[in-house]
Every structure is written in C-alpha cells, then in structure tokens.
Design a protein that fits this description.
alpha+beta; 6-stranded antiparallel sheet; 37% helix; 17% strand; 3-stranded antiparallel sheet
Length: 477
C-alpha cells in the first residue's frame, strides 16, 4: 500500500493522478467540440430516436477552424545563441528530434485541449561526442501528463507521466522532480482508464528513486494563454455556446426545409373512402393522391378543388446563421475572411486590417510558448552535457502575419538601403537559422569571387619610382 504522507513520491503520484483524472471530463468535452461532435441539438423527447440521424447532420464544426487558425500561424524556426547567432548544436538537436513538425502536435493540443507538453530525456541509442545519451524530445498529451507549480515561485515543481501499455496491460507512471524520478506500475492489469487508489500502484524503482542531473523538471508544459489564477482553456472556450446555438439554428432550418420547404398539397370537396381495421377497430382514411411524375389526380366530386401551400421562407434562418458565425469568429479573434460570404475583391490591406486582432493573439502565444522552447533546449543541453545556458537563447518564429513575397522583397530592399546587415534582413524574411547561415555564407563567397575578378589597381607612386626633375638632379640633391 502506498504511503500517503504529504510531499512523498507516493503522495504526489496519487495527487497528480487524481487531478489528471478529474481533468479528463473537460478534456473529453473540449475534444468533442474540436472534432465537431458537440451535444446534439435538442428535440422533443418523443422524437429523439427518430431524429437522431437528422440531428447529426445539423452539426457544423467551427471550433476546429478557430483552433487551427492559430496553429497555422505558429511556427518556431529554430533557436539561436544568446548573441543571436545560429547555434549549430541546438540546430542538430532540433533536427534530430524533428521539432519542425512535432511542435505542431503540441500547439494543436494547446489550442484544442488547453495545454500540451514536451518531455526531455536520454535517447536509447543515439549518443553525443562525450559519450552521454543524446537528448530525446517527445510531445506529450494532457491525458497522460500533468505538472504542479510551486505556489511561492510559480515554477514547475513536480510532474507526472502516466500511461497504459496495451502490450502487457499494465499502467505505468513516473513522478518527476528536478533531480530524481520515481517509477510506478499498477499491481494488476487494468484498462486505459487508470486506477488512482492507494492500493492500485507499486513502486518499481530503487529505494531512493532514479537520480538525474538535468537540474530542472524534464516535463515542460505549454499552456494556452491562461489568465492569472485560472486554469488554461482551449482557443474556442469562449464561443462554445455560440457553437451550440449554430447547431440548433441549422437543425431548425433543416426541419423547416424538410417539412415546409416544398409546396404542400391540399384538396377539398373530395369524398375520401374509409376503412375499418377488423382487429383494432380503428377507422383510417385511404389516400389515393400520391405525388409523382406522370401522375394525374382525378376526383369525382362536383366541387373538388386542388391546390398547394407556399414554400417556407428560409432566408431568416440563413441571416441568423451568418450572424452567429460572425459573432463566433469576432469573439474568438479569428479573421472574418475565413467566412468569406460577403467579401469580394479583397485587397492585401483589407486582409491585414482583418488580421490585426488575430495576429496580436498569436503573438501572445509566441511569447508564452517561446519560454517553454527555451526550457526544452536548456534541458537538451543538460542531457547532452553541454555547458551553454539556453534559457538566454532566442527562439526564432515565422511572422504570423500573412505577407506576400512582393511585400517581403520590398521591405528587404528598404532595410538594406538604411544599412541593415544581410543576416538580420534574412531573419525578417522568415528564414530559419540554418538558412540565414547559408545565405550569409553564400553572399560572402560571391563578394569574394567578384573582388578576385576585378582588375588589379595601378601601382601608387613611391620614392623609388618617381621620375627625375627637369634639371636631372636627384631628389634632395
């Protein structure tokens, strides 16, 4: 049985595990909205089963659009040293861990599930020149990871990584501190939903845990823009009610379209035949008028009249839908041109104006996530035994604003004209640190080649090659 004494590894295992399980309900709800599967719009109870398929067709997913609109603008290009120069070692770690693509997994988790994680450890097969294991950086899901912060310093204090192994059927967990980790395993095989009772886990490590020399918590949290004192929320958290309202409006429009969208027929003055069910005794009316191509309706009634009702007007539903979509995009600070119903011949200046709030929001994400990447690279350096302090490094990000190539070239020309060096201009153009190095090296080699092809300058006069004066005397004679 685990020891539930506060601040022991056993206590942290149970505390963080239960906290992670309590978070699952919200994660499930946010994931359903992100995947376009929010609760079905409500109908009368007696019609729920009959209209279940009809309800599913009414769901239109804008939550994923709002999340991915920010993910598409978030791209870290790499890490430089404290002096701003490209760092070869950091670039190698970046490429070995495929962070160009893996970072997007973490950003998408943060936008859709409120938080994502990166875990840094030693690679099982790859080593550095000094013999230490190379750093391994893996993206982690909030269903399997959680971090607790020190209330005094607001720095990460302890972390938990817990997962279910579908091969052997056991659950595994690791409680992590800045200098030691404590591994656990469930006593019995379990399902994907891990148990968090004090009798459910057993310690499988040494008596003192498994020390490490990273100097900080190896689990780095990337929270999506949390308010002070509040838990982070996904990108679409503020507009989930509008998403539900949109689905309800679509369902109402579909119902009106199905029931009154097509002209309904009526007849009067016709005498319908009736029949009585011999078993139940119910009297039913025979319906001889069945719509269909090539069908002629005939009545023997002397004053029989046929007609049809007018179709339902759906324009009000469509206007309501467009208004709800605009509200959803505006409140989530997503560019309204994503719903380009009324936009015609949009100029680049118009797109830039519509982008202002969205770009400002993405820059807030960049400021927050950049600190996390610096911590990840500092952990990589500690894992590799490199003395550099990457907490003072600079993370290069692609410009989140949409700028055409012609505008970039014009800006680069103007920067060059006022004396900006080529490497800074290349950074402003959105090039990676490796490409900046290649551009500057290529420009330097071209300049050296051009200088070598120039004709040699004429020899300047010296005391040894000056001509004699008119008197034929020697200088100074």
């Amino acid at each position: 049985m685990l020891d539930e004494t506060p601040d022991t590894p056993d206590w942290w295992l149970l505390r963080l595990g239960r906290k992670m399980r309590r978070r699952e309900r919200l994660l499930d709800e946010w994931w359903r909205y992100y995947r376009g599967r929010p609760p079905l719009p409500e109908l009368p109870k007696n019609a729920e089963q009959a209209f279940m398929d009809f309800q599913r067709k009414s769901r239109t997913n804008f939550c994923q659009l709002i999340s991915n609109a920010s993910v598409h603008r978030l791209l870290a290009l790499g890490v430089t040293g404290p002096d701003g120069e490209p760092d070869t070692t950091a670039s190698r770690w970046w490429q070995q861990n495929r962070l160009d693509s893996r970072q997007k997994l973490v950003w998408r988790l943060a936008m859709s599930q409120s938080v994502g994680y990166m875990l840094v450890g030693g690679h099982p097969r790859r080593t550095e020149a000094n013999g230490r294991p190379s750093p391994l950086v893996t993206p982690e899901h909030p269903r399997e990871c959680i971090v607790e912060y020190d209330p005094e310093t607001d720095e990460p204090y302890v972390g938990l990584k817990a997962y279910w192994d579908d091969v052997d059927g056991y659950g595994y967990a690791v409680v992590m501190f800045d200098d030691v980790v404590f591994p656990y395993r469930t006593k019995e095989r379990c399902g994907r939903r891990l148990p968090w009772g004090p009798d459910s886990w057993e310690w499988v490590g040494g008596d003192q845990g498994e020390p490490h020399d990273l100097g900080m918590l190896p689990l780095v949290e990337f929270a999506r823009m949390p308010d002070l004192g509040e838990d982070p929320e996904p990108e679409f958290a503020g507009v989930m009610d509008i998403q539900d309202r949109l689905n309800m409006g679509i369902l109402s429009r579909m119902s009106a379209s199905r029931n009154a969208g097509f002209p309904q027929k009526w007849i009067k003055g016709h005498k319908f035949a009736k029949k009585k069910d011999p078993v139940s005794g119910l009297i039913t009316v025979e319906q001889p008028f069945v719509p269909g191509p090539g069908v002629v309706w005939v009545s023997e009634g002397e004053n029989a009249q046929f007609g049809q009702l007018g179709p339902a007007d759906l324009s009000g539903f469509l206007k309501e839908h467009a208004s709800d979509v605009r509200d959803m995009l505006i409140l989530s600070q997503t560019p309204t041109y994503y719903y380009a119903a009324d936009l015609v011949n949009v100029s680049a200046d118009t797109v830039g104006a519509l982008d202002i709030l969205h770009v400002a929001k993405v820059r807030e994400h960049i400021a927050s996530f950049g600190e996390g990447i610096e911590t990840v690279m500092a952990l990589c350096a500690a894992q590799a035994g490199v003395p550099e302090d990457y907490t003072e490094a600079e993370v290069r990000w692609a410009n989140p604003a949409h700028i055409s190539l012609a505008m970039k070239a014009d800006a680069a020309t103007k920067l060059k004209s006022i004396g900006y060096p080529l490497d800074v201009i290349a950074e402003e153009m959105g090039e990676t640190p490796a490409m900046v190095r290649r551009i500057t090296a290529g420009a330097a080699s071209q300049a050296l080649l051009a200088a070598s092809l120039l004709p040699a300058p004429a020899a300047a006069p010296t005391a040894g090659n000056l001509p004699d004066d008119d008197t034929g005397g020697v200088l100074g004679g």
